[in-house]
Fold this sequence. Notes:
Blueprint: E1 6-12, H1 15-22, H2 29-43, E2 46-52, H3 60-74, H4 87-108, H5 113-118, H6 122-127, H7 134-141, H8 147-152, H9 172-177
Parallel strand pairs: 1-2
Amino acid sequence: xxxxxxxxxxxxxxxxxxxxxxxxxxxxxxxxxxxxxxxxxxxxxxxxxxxxxxxxxxxxxxxxxxxxxxxxxxxxxxxxxxxxxxxxxxxxxxxxxxxxxxxxxxxxxxxxxxxxxxxxxxxxxxxxxxxxxxxxxxxxxxxxxxxxxxxxxxxxxxxxxxxxxxxxxxxxxxxxxxx
Length: 179
């Protein structure tokens, strides 16, 4: 019995490509182009099957794909198209640039010395998951209900720590490291 069904068999050695095609949340430009082509073919009564093959030298299709990829990589006339960069790549690069800029400004400013003592590197600070309560913020910034801060603004007369030591930088670092 003969089948009238027309099947297009697509073989790939890329497990990642096959997984991306199955994951409906993957919306990269190339994956979307493949999905669109599959839909077009199905509208013309063709079925598309994807199969994974092992990458190995001597396989005609694999060799041809490798050759085309090398030619494309060497081609200087291919126009760059930035609208095809995945959003996650753009967001990642923007975040990286922002952190670098923030670090430069952090190093250059003369303010926030107590906070800088706790967090000299912005990138390291961003990796921490902190529960920023008012008491935590007061401790890390040296502002708030801290004796040295209150004395500075003449709310109290004596900045002495309960352990009877007066510190020059305020007692935030003293509390956390010595008291």
